[in-house]
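Students often ask why we bother encoding 3D structure as a string. The short answer is that it lets us treat folding as translation between two languages. Here is a chain of 254 residues written in the first language.
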Amino acid sequence: MTNPYRIHLNKYFETITDFKHTCNRLNKILLKDVEIYTSKGAKYISATSLIIGDWTGPTENGWKLNYHTGVNKTTFKENYAKEINKVLSREFGLAFAQCYEAFETLLKDLVYTKIITDESFKNSLSKNNDYSRNRLKGGEDIFKLIKKAGKIRFAKYSKQNNTNFKFKEIFKIFSEIRHAITHSKGNLKTSKIPNNDYYKRLFEYLFPLNRLENDLINLKFNYKTLDDLLIHLAEFGYQIFKILSKEDGYDWKI
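And here it is in the second language, the structure alphabet:
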């Protein structure tokens, strides 16, 4: 019997692979650029100014008049390596956030597929909520539905697996990191991560360039960290696919 969950897993894997592929190339090119322009005898300077127009201001015969905002940025050879590392960290953080969004999309697609193919699961849901695909919420809401759909198998796999990743805890960390990247320029309030030993160890394993110290940390990424994270996200998505597939008697092996 064809597994209706598989098409969503394939699409998710394609997204992860695309970001791995592109970010790997970006990392190699920019680090090579640093080697070239910080080598002995090399010269480097780059400057950018922000120039804008006034939509409701005067024009010159219909042509936009440009104004200097007074905001500039200049990079010299001496701080080029530092600047590139900041750029890579930012881009890798954004890539993680995008792949996390793809992970939540996968969860929604899997839950919706379960709803339309499993009448008993559909009937077990609250009649007061709209469970159409475009109304499914992310975050804890979709996680609770996944947990409900996975039944005892979900709890068993979360408690016993080869990585010692507890599903609720790793989902919480990934969710807070995505939120910090998307809404706070990568600044994470450490209070967002529950204060216990397992969370601390898991966080610092997943994000080894960061420590849960002080009230606020600016998240740092390099390519190895991103690559590991994307593999974890891919494997997490596969576990959910496997759980639901086994619950419904579908082939789950890839």
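Translate back mentally: The radius of gyration is 23 Å. Keep this in mind for the problem set.
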